[in-house]
Amino acid sequence: MPIDVEVNLKVPSLTVSSPGKPDQRVDNSYTRFTKRIAVESIPKAGDALQLSTKFGEPFECTVTRADWHDDKNMFVVSCSFARRSISAAEHTALLTDPEWVSKPLL
Question: Measuring CA to CA, which residue among 11, 25, 5 is closest to residue 59?
Answer without folding.
Answer: 11
